[in-house]
Amino acid sequence: EIRPRFGLMRGREFIMKDMYSFDRDEAGLDKSYWEAYHAYERIFSRCGLETRPVEADSGAIGGDVTHEFMVLADSGEDLVIYCPECDYAANVERAECRHISKDNSNVEKLTLEEVATPNASTIQEITEFLGVSAADCIKTLIYLADGKPVAALVRGDHELNEIKLQRLLGCQFLELADQYTIEEVTGAPVGFAGPVGLNIPIIADVHVTEMVNAIAGANKADYHVKNVNLDRDFKVTTTADIRMVEEGDSCPKCGTAMTSARGIEVGQVFKLGTKYSSALKATFLDENGKEQPVIMGCYGIGVGRTVAAVIEQNHDENGISWPISIAPYHVVVVPVSLKDDKQSEAAQQIYKSLQDAGVEVVLDDRDERPGV
To answer: Do the bridges between strand 202-205 and strand 214-217 make them parallel or antiparallel, or are there none, so unpaired?
Structure first.
């Protein structure tokens, strides 16, 4: 890690249990994947950890299915969204929520109106200036996707999920546009972008498409427009779920309000498919003598991170309380005085007896006083 923190959690050295599977078809990969998945569940359980497998983003490694094994802990660097009623859980980067459609067909669409909003460029400033709620505003964000400008629209009370947007666009690099690009694309400084009259691809979150008489930037310095409506005033290139899911959103599986917690990632499993085997020409001959790429899976456990996570979940005011399954030793034999031959002999005898019985034991034969 570039900036290590949290002791073992983000150390410069990363020890990993790494494993790959190679199958002839998707059915074989599915079997290998879920065997590894359930083996990981048992491994972490035997380490004394409470883990929650969550749907995740595969990032640079690739593949279309992946799960992270998260240990819920306040010191975790990831945010997990999960349902308290069913088994749905996902990293916030991947999390989805149930979308309940609104029928706004009976709402009158008012006339588009330009209003002066001097020095009001953020959602908070606009809501205070115009006396509206953030949910009435369209947030227009200009991005560069592999160097080409695109606009992403989310409701004012929502946050954009860049991972979802990047996956949707299929681009390698996604970054917020600089102020010069924004001025060139919109004709206005940062904070006044809007979808009306924008001539670049527009990606809208599903919630934006249901907004009626919304407020958006006017693509003009110190101005916004009221009563903005989709199709009449602007068109979108693509509609998709591109927002960040939050605590309280409805579970996509059962509809229950979801909650969130910090998590430490200790392992991850990936369905890689043919991404690497095709590139590296890793093939096999099928029953017809035809070359086919092997179907790959990838599975890893962070060994040091697992130890760190165990400590996070198992400690008291005196320090670490190791689960017996991974404790360095089960028994420590402490002779109070090694100078006393009887004590030394008794300690050695107990030590050997425990060793012979298969007990993990250590003899503390340091030349220290009992207090130490």
So the answer is: unpaired
Count CB neighbours of 190 within 10 A: 15
With 0.90 as the threshold, say if the pTM is over it.
Answer: no
Locate 98 and state its tokens: 């149930």
d(CA 41, CA 324) in angstroms, rounded, equals: 18
pLDDT, one tens digit per residue, over 2-40 is: 565 566 666 667 789 999 999 999 999 999 999 999 999
Task: Write the DSSP assignment of 279-339 as a string of letters.
Answer: HTT-EEE-TTS-EEEPEEEEEEEEHHHHHHHHHHHSEETTEE---TTT-S-SEEE--S-TT
Residues of the chain with pLDDT under 70: 1-12, 58-63
Residue type, position 287, single letter: E
Q: What are phi and psi of 68, to 5 degrees?
A: -100, 145
**Separation CA 293–CA 274 (nearest Å):** 6
